[in-house]
Amino acid sequence: MYTLDVSFDLNASLVKGVARIPAAKDRELRLQKGGLTLTRVSLDTGEVAVSTEGEWVRLRPSRDGTIEIRYEGRFKGSGGGDQPGAVIGAGGIFLDGTWYPKPDHLCEYRLSARLPAGYEAVSEGETVEKAAVEGGTRFTFIFPHPREGVTLIATDRYRVTRERFAGVEVYVYFFPEDGDLVRTYLDRTKAYIALYGSLIGPFPYKRFSIVENFLPTGYSMPTYTLLGQQVVRLPFIPETSLGHEILHQWLGNLVFIDYEKGNWAEGLTSFLADHLYEEEKGRGWEYRKDALAAYMSYVNGKNEFPLKAFVERTDRASEAIGYGKAVMVFQMLRDLVGKEHFNESVRSFCREMAFKEASWADIERIFQAHYQGDLGWFFRQWIDRTGLAELSLEEADAEPSGSRFKVTFEVLQGKEPFVLDIPVAVSTRSGVTRKTFRLSGERGQFEMMVDGLPRRIVLDENYDLARRLSPDEFPPSIARLLGEEKRVVVLPSASAAIYEEVARAFTGRGDEALAPDRVTFDVLKGHALVILGAKNPVVGRLFGNVAAAGGFSVLVKNNPWNPGKVVAIVDASSADEVKEAFPKVSHYGKYSFLSFDHGVNTVKKIDESARGMGASLSEEVEALDVSALKNLPYVVDRVAGKRIIYVGETHDQFSHHAVELEIIRELHRKGRKIIIGMEMFERQFQKVLDDYIGGRIDEGAMLRGTEYFKRWAFDYNLYRPILLFARSEKIPVIALNQKREIVDKVFHRGLDALTEEEKKALPSMDFSDDAYRERLEQVFQEHGAPKGDGFAFFYQAQILWDETMAESVALALKSRPEVQAVILAGRGHIEYGSGIPKRTARRNGSDYAIILNDVEPEPHIADFVLYPGVVPEKSAPKLMVALKEEGGRVEVTGFPPGSVSEKAGVKKGDIFLLIGKTPIRTIDDLKIDLLSRHRGDKVMVRVSRKGFFGGSTEKEFEIALQ
Description:
CATH class of the largest domain: Alpha Beta
């Protein structure tokens, strides 16, 4: 037995000791001395030759006997002494590591420590003796089992509480100010001793102590655990970390870790402690999902290693492997061998390997003996290999098979496949059918029978497999941001001093910092971003307006242009808020949103994500109660109280415009003060519309001034009744649309193609509506998708279009707080609220209703769907000619089949001069004149025609309008 006698000079931070170690003739003894000073080394009464190599000394005695080493060491703590992790001072003593000559092999220890009066001390010891001596107290700790080393904690501030439970003496060494916590820690300790006694076997030692430390520690040594004062005070520690440290009495302190072959203990302890506690609450699947998310966030090709290479936690990546992945491995092992075999194997492991070094190979050997089957393949793929499995669910389908349904599906994985037992759940109206399928190659095709129409299939809904999460399962989080190899920091546009600490922290890690005007589309889609300031213009380019939470906040969202990357919006009201809260952010890795007030966390949230890897097999059967069908007045009554009423149209359907007019008339009749927003007009022409509604210009001037016929492709007669009614009743009409040239430029070349002046006029834009994006992408693909950034530019143009109209609505209502708005736009801008409605609500929070015409009723598509039937259409009469306008001349370029103008004698190349008495200089002149005419009317037109030998002649024709 290694005996160690020590005494202390607290004022000098000095320990003086005498170590006595059994020695055998000619057998080398190797000791780590660190920064200790060895004042004398002897064998019984004779000197011993000492060979020194750095921190180590070698001794080779010439005969059997006892080596005696007298030494001293100074430990001031915080790097000020010989051992940075240890301290001796007036506040107390904490000694771990090389504070005595430490052998390179396991020993049994007897520690005797002389301490000042009033001190209490704790060390590894099944037998503890306490005796008064001159000037103080001598504590003797005897631990009759081999172990790697010995520690000591002592202070005069301890108040000791003792109780006996299940043959174990349980002690609590707490400071006086934390006395109210003693009862909780005692009760929870007894509960854990009972829990693991039944699960693993009797508590390994005769005594156990919970010890409060004046240093910020969290250790478990044989017979005691040492927890820092701030840790002890955390309300969740008795329910979580305390149990983890107590379990280490078996795993790590009873069974030692063979570090050269991998640290298995942290994973198994986490599985049977932290994970088990969540499992008992029905949240085991959440714990496992978080573990997988942490692995995917922090582990990459550069820092990944197999479990057999894990020694200790040094960073987030090593923790994700050594703790998180190991938990998943033990979960799969338990599922494979069965819970009973698993628990019995753990019990045998602790019995057989007590006070011995154990490796993964020992776990494999003992588990295999109880399982009585080959487990070599399992341990090779999960302990020796790196990574997680990567699965995808393909070709899921269901078809009738007699009175039941057959569900077929295919599962794919990577080119170096794992052998996996995949849990599958198929839900029907009557319940859920579950089955497990083994996948051993890159591809597997499976089928299962279920009763009732299958609705949905989900793979691994409880996260029993060590696999990568699908994008739908992987919420944006702070961990994903911190796990990125590099980020781009977007500097604030104002109040830069507030964010200096945040910017410095990231750029100090090698991240690039850019001013907002240097953030191009390529930067947005290629990087994870840290945007400083909620009012940063780059926030507006990605998500529209994001409200500041006050204090200090971090909001993490998926990057709309690259779902594999995240964007963090960091906002603070002052540099002090940053200083108090920012250093704590990394401890909240799994969260999507955090808010702090003076450094105190007030809100923490995780975005919702899918549970399991799933696919729909059939849609829910929907029914419409036709007895509940209502008429238009009923609908208007129901929406009349909404601030905004959106009416979605198909542009060329006159019946839809007739409904729009009826809604406007009915609201006006009810005395509602309304404005009408119209997609059909661009915002730069608002004054022209104001002048028309105000009676200052006529219809023709309005159409010319708004360039209606050049900028909107649909017959003006479709909208004319609405505009005439608005003019007669002096109802303001708001031009909603973006300038066509801007939208076209973005459609073809993207937002980065705009000039700086054009960019300044853009509205804030939110690209994060994934469902809307998917619908638009489907439309884009159906219309022949160009390669490259075609969809990205199309999507940018669509969102610019939507956001401009939403901004127009919000501004119009802001300047008219007393009015109600009726918004007329294409149904695609209104369905599900994705286009204009939600974007307006983001700006002003106004409530709204959505009315659509002639669409299939679907959940959430609208508040009301109208079916107006056929309404007689009044469209402008036609000359049936194709025209081009150039240099103040309108030239005929062709005719459709059966053209009335061609029959009357008009020819290609003719130049229109007059229609009736109206001079024709533009196509608008022609269209405006036709507005006052009707089909079947006969009208005289005058044209100029080139002569055969040069020159020109004027000709007149009477044309019956079609």
